[in-house]
Design brief:
With 252 residues, this protein is α+β, with helices and mostly antiparallel strands. The protein contains 7 helices and 10 strands. α1 crosses α7. 33% of the residues are buried. Pfam families: Pro_isomerase.
């Protein structure tokens, strides 16, 4: 009996250690729309924007808001709290939580198709809106197109080989680079952007039929299993995994 108790205590301790040891590499947010569902990976390189977006998503700040500005072959923009229950035809885009986020613009994070960027006004510090964001659709560019952009719009900046490869294959919005903070990218459901981008809009680029948003911050286990699936591995759903998860927080 004493030996059995020791084994049970050892198993309990082992499960606790395993439960708390495994953490996802990134934070993930599921974006649920009228045109489908996609999952966003938030970059660790932009911690201020990551943590702010996680806080808002966790607190259901975005639920019921709209993609209020949609421009095909460019982007779809949301995150304005004033869009929740807004009357048809109302011009939107000025709402927010009452604060901005310092810019976290980095050379290696750019506007390829499927990334999320932070909207902002024309403030000189390029500080981001506290809640408004856009998902890039963009379009495919030729190398010559990118050469012209460098000469006419990029203030002496040169696109890297990584940027050029992305913009000439999957596409994006290169003219936004170095001017807005990019803080994540879709890991699945990128076709949702295309579906929303093709809806009819009014003179203010607002969809004539509301495109509502709901967000879900993935739990620790959901994020761990997503990362396994992205690596071609099976999700962990076995007995010991479930027992271990009983002793761990869903947050991470």
């Amino acid at each position: 009996m004493r030996f059995l108790k020791i084994c049970l205590v050892a198993l309990f301790c082992f499960l606790q250690v395993m439960a708390f040891a495994a953490k996802p590499e990134y934070k993930y947010v599921q974006i649920i729309t009228d045109k489908g569902t996609c999952v966003l990976r938030l970059y660790n390189e932009t911690p201020k924007h990551r943590d702010n977006f996680v806080k808002l998503a966790k607190n259901k700040y975005y639920d019921g808001t709209l993609f209020h500005r949609v421009i095909q072959n460019f982007m779809i923009q949301g995150g304005d709290p004033d869009s929740r229950n807004a009357v048809g035809g109302a011009q939107l885009g000025n709402g927010g939580p009452g604060y901005t986020i310092p810019a976290e613009i980095q050379d290696g994070l750019f506007h390829k198709k499927g990334v999320i960027g932070a909207a902002r006004d024309n403030n000189p510090a390029k500080a981001s809106s506290g809640s408004q964001f856009y998902l890039v659709q963009g379009k495919v560019f030729t190398p010559e197109d990118l050469d012209r952009l460098e000469q006419t719009r990029m203030s002496g900046k040169k696109f890297s080989e990584k940027q050029r490869q992305a913009y000439t294959t999957v596409g994006g919005a290169p003219h936004l680079d170095w001017n807005y903070t990019v803080f994540g990218e879709l890991v699945n459901g990128i076709e949702v952007i295309d579906k929303i981008a093709e809806v009819k809009t009014d003179q203010h680029d607002r969809p004539e039929v509301d495109q509502k948003v709901t967000m879900h911050l993935l739990t620790r286990r959901e994020a761990l299993n997503l990362e396994r699936e992205l690596k071609g591995l099976k999700p962990q759903t076995g007995f010991f995994t479930k027992i271990g998860d009983l002793f761990s927080s869903k947050d991470y």
